[in-house]
Amino acid sequence: MDRRRMERLGLDTSVIGMGCWQIGGSWGEVPESDALATLHAAADAGVTFFDTADVYGNGRSEQLVGRFRRERPAGSVFVATKMGRRADPHVAGAYTLDYFRAWNDRSRANLGMDTLDLVQLHCPPSPVFTTQATYDALDTMVAEGRMRAYGVSVERCDEALAAIERPNVASVQIILNAFRLKPLEEVLPAAVAAGVGIIARVPLASGLLSGRYTADTEFAVDDHRSYNREGASFDKGETFSGVPYDVGIAAAQEFAGLVPEGVTPAQFALRWIVDTPGVSIVIPGARNAEQARANAAAGSLPPLSASQRDAVAALYDRRIREHVHASW
């Protein structure tokens, strides 16, 4: 497994991490035993970075990650969580120190950690990113020993750029995959210049890039790929990266044709992200141990060729750009 350094975190981490939304909820039911087996399989394959959030399964994901962490050797697992989406209504005025402390208390209890490794604001309303009081409150949380560092998870590139300008933001988590290329234009160069880590999420466009789905695929009613295609529950871009499903299916079939023998489309998609300058880590999710091991294997594949990367860019320009580029 290749490793990479996140400068502001002072952390060397596996280039492939694991996103833990799937084991919490909104992707169909994953039994506890399967969730724990998936986490351990990822760690056994070299994954050191695990990303969760307080709202995934209303705390279930954090609780499972906390149990898993206690079962691994000390210091071998780095946990990033998120806070903010528990606000109801989800408005900028809820992002205050008092709320931060309450959410942080809950996450520390769920994870069984006195001091959290990394806490990220969870896609807050845009004004939060330009409000000095936000960062003052986060700095206070670090000073109180509640967390070692903080970052942000964003929907939009302009939000990422605003956060990167802040001196104590350690990381930015953003949707980045072969069907979402806009972050390459400004966000990644700015992050490199500032020493801010980039955590690439939704790397398989909610599974589209795995090549496993067809126009006839049916998802469970409690799977966001059923109920959030038009953004009914949260930002549309979180589901299939905002690409219309029929467009994504056709593009994914063409994408699969670019994949060399012996590599799966999902591994090719992950390696494309790993090879993108400025990316620190990519966090695919997994619902079983087999998926976790296959994802991790992408971290040791040879880099993609220039012609392969050009082909991905050309596919994006022909099929995807018009649907997503201007929106996020």
Brief descriptors of the model:
13% strand; 8-stranded parallel sheet; 11 helices; alpha/beta; globular; two-stranded antiparallel sheet; 328 residues
List the helices and strands and how they pair.
Layout: E1 3-6, E2 11-14, E3 18-19, H1 32-44, E4 49-51, H2 60-71, E5 78-83, H3 97-111, E6 118-122, H4 132-143, E7 150-153, H5 157-164, E8 169-175, H6 187-194, E9 197-201, H7 224-227, H8 245-256, H9 265-274, E10 281-282, H10 289-297, H11 306-324
Parallel strand pairs: 3-4, 4-5, 5-6, 6-7, 7-8, 8-9, 9-10
Antiparallel strand pairs: 1-2
Helix pairs in contact: 1-2, 1-10, 2-3, 5-6, 8-11
Summarize the structure.
It contains 11 helices and 10 strands. It is of the alpha/beta class.
Provide an overview of this structure.
With 328 residues, the chain is α/β, with parallel strands linked by helices. 37% of the residues lie in helices and 13% in strands. It contains 11 helices and 10 strands. Strands 3-4-5-6-7-8-9-10 form an 8-stranded parallel β-sheet. The chain has a two-stranded antiparallel sheet with strand order 1-2. Helix 1 links the parallel strand 3 and strand 4. Helix 1 crosses helix 2 and helix 8 packs antiparallel against helix 11.
